[in-house]
Structures are given as C-alpha cells and as structure tokens.
Amino acid sequence: MIIVNVKDNESVDRALKRFKKKFERTGVLKELRSRAYFEKPSIAKRKQKERAVYKQQLFADQNY
After folding, report:
1. Fewer CB within 10 A of the terminal residue: the chain, N end or C end?
2. What pLDDT digit, counting tens, does each position of 15-49 carry?
3. d(Cα 13, Cα 19) in Å, to the nearest integer?
4. Range 14-51 burial, b when 16+ CB lie within 10 A, else e
C-alpha cells in the first residue's frame, strides 16, 4: 500500500504528483500489462536480449 503524507499548506496537485511517482516506481502497472497476455519464455528472453543490445549500442554511441 502506498502512503503519501500531505504536509501543511501543500497543494493536492503536489501530493498527487508524489503519489504518481511512488506508484510508478513500484512497477505495478508494468507488471499488470505484462500479465495481460501470455508470452512464451523463449520469446521473452529474445526480447530481453534485443533490448540489452539496443541499450548497449546507445551507450556506445554516447561515448563517441
């Protein structure tokens, strides 16, 4: 359960923004979307490798 303490004289918008950040960090929504449909483990591994290669290429490009 996510708890956000609202401080004195703090706007609701600011508290809502902090709640959204905390909620995003927990990864609940990401996991919910991944469970929406079944993905074979072999395909999941393949996608994970593709993402890793992509990130590695991005990082290598930034160093030059």
Report:
1. N
2. 999 999 999 999 999 899 989 999 999 999 999 99
3. 10
4. eeeebeeeeeeeeeeeeeeeeeeeeeeeeeeeeeeeee
- 3 state DSSP class of 46: helix
pTM for the predicted model, two decimal places: 0.55
Helix (H) or strand (E) holding 6: none
Please tell me the total number of residues recorded for the chain in this structure. 64
Residue 62 has pLDDT above 90, yes or no: no
Cβ–Cβ < 8 Å for 6, 19: no
